[in-house]
Amino acid sequence: MRGALGGPRVLLRRLREVMAEPVSAQERLDKIVVLIAANMVAEVCSVYVLRVDGRLELYATEGLKAESVHNTVLAADEGLVGLVASEANPINLSEAQSHPAFSYRAETGEEIYHSFLGVPILRAGNTLGVLVVQNRARRTYSEEEEEALQTTAMVVAEMIASGELSAIARPGAPEPAARRPVHINGAALNDGIALGHVVLHEPRIVITNFIADDVNKELKRLEASIETMRSDLDVLLERGEVPDAGEHRDVLEAYRMFAYDRGWQHRLTEAVVTGLTAEAAIERVQSDTRARMLRATDPYLRERLHDLDELSNRLMHQLLGKDYTPPRDRLPENAIIVARTMGPAALLEYDRKRLRGLVLEEGGPNSHVAIVARALGIPAVGEIANATGVADPGDAIIVDGASGDVHVRPSPDMEAAYVERVRLRARRQSQYLALRDKPCVTKDGVPITLLLNAGLAVDLPHIDETGAAGIGLFRTELQFMVAANLPRTAEQFSLYRAVLDAAGDKPVTFRTLDIGGDKVLPYMRNEEEENPALGWRAIRLGLDRPGLLRAQIRALLRAAGGRELKVMFPMIAAVEEFDEAKGLIERELTHLRRHGHKLPDRVEVGTMVEVPSLLYQLDELIDRVDFLSVGSNDLLQFFYAADRGNKRVSGRFDPLSAPMLRVFKVIAAKSNARHKPVTLCGELASTPLGALALTAIGYRSLSVAPSAVGPVKAMLLDLDAGKAGKLLGPLIDSPAGSAPIRERLKAFASEHGLQV
Ligand code: PEP
Ligand code: MG
């Protein structure tokens, strides 16, 4: 660039001096605009700051009328400045006045300027304001000048983000948005409310040195780190540790492709040439990428931008050569972990006593980390776009795992409202606790067995805490899902034994491995399937490759030596599959007996009922099994042909609809008639309203999430099951057309003072 005062590097050096001067924020901003205008031979340089009300306020100017500072406030979409802010993209025009978005404010005196260059002031992809230069002449700003202004905007972004400008906002005017309260709604992953402070799972690297002392040296640092990162990726992909196919490899291949992308390297180099340090250059490019990512609607493009963002992260760590993982066992009090994504094992490493909540940018209800969050009882919310860009370490944050709301830097009113809700919940919790040792019998004397759903060692204390009657569903796949490698038989054995020890006299029903579908094991090569939910999963995989299933059965039989063992199989679709699976148990029993192992005193074998084909084989099935367990999650999915993991359809059909309730009722009626125990272990039983309906249609055993034991039990103790049955019977049997059953049940609950 031909700037009269020595180009962008000189400008950056001067800016550094200004940033270090002990002057007020206003004086600093005033000096910055003077410096930029002089350096770029512009007649005008202005800084507009985005305020909490979404408007853009002129905070400093060189060239426009001085009295317009803090008085000129633009609407979010007003004029070219509004356009730069909303699109987060530079606008460079030699004749601004002919642009359709052009408008001017008379009080600034800007109507005489023709050329316009505006760039967004970005930080972690968020727009904090707009930096503008203008000239009277119809001048074309070069690409280098545009680049230089963006680089300068980065320095201004740090100043705004520091919160320093709040002190110079006009009294009564809305503050700069940089530190504003942010409310985002995402996917509720685990119920509960947490108030605390942000801990970034992968802390952003705080750059202290933006401005290069020696550009050549910075270029060399950048090149060297890109080279190392490339060869690391090459080694990783070629060493044979990453499976030949599968998601992990695809992701790494994408990273490698981008790592060799010339455009990306060019942008980084350009940023260094304008005078930034290598790390500041990476941050600049990353911030642009994030800004585009947040606005991209095309999922393919978003994914690619995501890869680029991730690559910048790798490069940054490569460059600074430090381990930025926070010490997981030394969390501050009331820590709320904010992450883009996280594996289940990582969550388990955090200090449980200080961990209060979890916020993820990605991660739906079926993600493995969500499963662990539920097992740990941590309020969690997923699908919060740019959470790691919005939240700074130490910020106050509220996680509402019931509604899926996250509030970063909440207003005092919001915080007070939540404190009140937490108090209410605590009161309710203590009421539930008081019910812990009460027998679970309805008001009209029907005993209900209330069991727990579990799957990890961290679940075990819940048996005692809740006073549940045992474990109705132990999802053995969870141990496999959270592990980095396939758990060995000895590890399975020790978990199963720990579970039986913790349960003591209470029964535990183990379910054999239910993998495949949405339950993916990262270390197991999985074939691409068009319809994984209908694919090679659960018992199908177990029967076709019996090695894994047999090893598991052996571990279960040995762990239960001298005690009772209850085992059931997932996804059974035909009675022959049950026979075959049960045959494997017999074979293992024979094997263990022959080798003199201590055997279980009794083995009960049952099955999940979660595939609709079983509904037409119930008689044969009931003859064969010792017990049944209804998986309402999958049964609903297959019954209505609506993918449980697809948000567009998963809520479309109500499990409390007449057709579904008829199904549940038939299963209960047939099992009860033949005196075969039946439990319902899907999520439906974990809601008080669902439990009400199930009890009304004949279920006497429910297996629920640990957090649901209290609310479900409280409802059952007040329930007149006979009365509820009388209400529901005709509603289920009568033709459709009356008010939805859910609404009728709610009305019944409120008439009878039941908390649902
Ligand atoms: C079910 O399908 O209802 C069930 C309990 O099993 P999972 O949720 O583990 O598939
Ligand atoms: Mg299931």
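^ magnesium ion complex. Residues 1-5 have pLDDT under 50 and may be disordered. The first strand starts at residue 44 and ends at 50.
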